[in-house]
Amino acid sequence: MSTAAEGFVPPPYPYDRLDALKPVAGALEGGIVDLSIGDPCDPPPKVVLDALASSASERRYPASVGTPAYRDAARAWMERELAVSVESSQLAACIGTKEFVAGLPHWLRLRTPSRDTVLYPAISYPSYAMGAELAGARAVPVPVDAQGRSQLSAIDPADAARALCLWVNSPGNPTGFLDDLGAAAAWGRANDVPVISDECYVEFTWNGRGRTILEHGVDGVLAVHSLSKRSNLAGVRAGFYAGDGDLVHYLSELRKHAGFMVPGPVQAAAIAAWGDQDHVVMQRERYQQRLARFAEILRALDVEVALPDGAFYLWAAAPDGDAWALVRRLAEQGGALVSPGEFYGPDGAGFIRVAVVQPDERLDLVAQRLGL
User: What is the dihedral of CA 341, 346, 349, 351, to 10 degrees?
Assistant: First the structure.
């Protein structure tokens, strides 16, 4: 039996490092206002909950790739909202998208054992790098510029030659920046590296229309989408990946053998969610209002912050570059829990990320506590 010293030891989960501040923020009258993670608080539409409760699909094993109706609903949504068309064979279901993000490097290593490197944005959601670690692969960050675009020219050719994939995320978490998806697709094809585009915030794009990498063709690329954010269904776990037909087929066959299946009732709920756009329009308005409100709060504390190009996060430089000091101040004085930027890579140190997922009255409570 191997000891921990001989094998992989999981690092602390980043958000667990905030646990000590939770009782501090919670001690204030009215309790903690948790803005540390992108955990939606608003209700999903009734049509989705009704579908979840009435599908009568509990007894049967669901199709791993997704039922034809599930895939058709996702395809119709992409065509309607993103103006791209894919075939059924170019789209498959996943259980939310975090499991897909974290597991993909392992599956790609099985496909191409000679490669061992995952390229990902230097400031990004931790699961891109962690997925590489869990697969025993190298996690190599790609620098991003001041506008959040991946600096593809900075990728070492030796790393490109070893790359299993290149991750892009637009609108990005934590910054809300928009990446150049066309440039990423072209780089991947030129270097024979699959490009995986995490687009879970696409319907919360504030600067122009929502964009997908599939606008630039499907060869060598995948787009990954989720209902967690757009439909407030993070606890239901439904998403899909679409793009290169050969890659979708490989992954869907592997996932079939491994038993990755979106539950039947969840698939029914997802069909209803993809088909309803009114609730997304309402959610967009909520997040835009909350972003503007909390930006006012930060500015009143002499914290410089700009509204993002997309997503529902504020990415703000901490005074004197001391992110943890600002995190503690917001927790101790405002009862608000936010994330230090170092959770998203060393290049994020000196920033904080605020997820404006709480209702307006909770954000106003933080302002009141801070005397604003």
Answer: -40
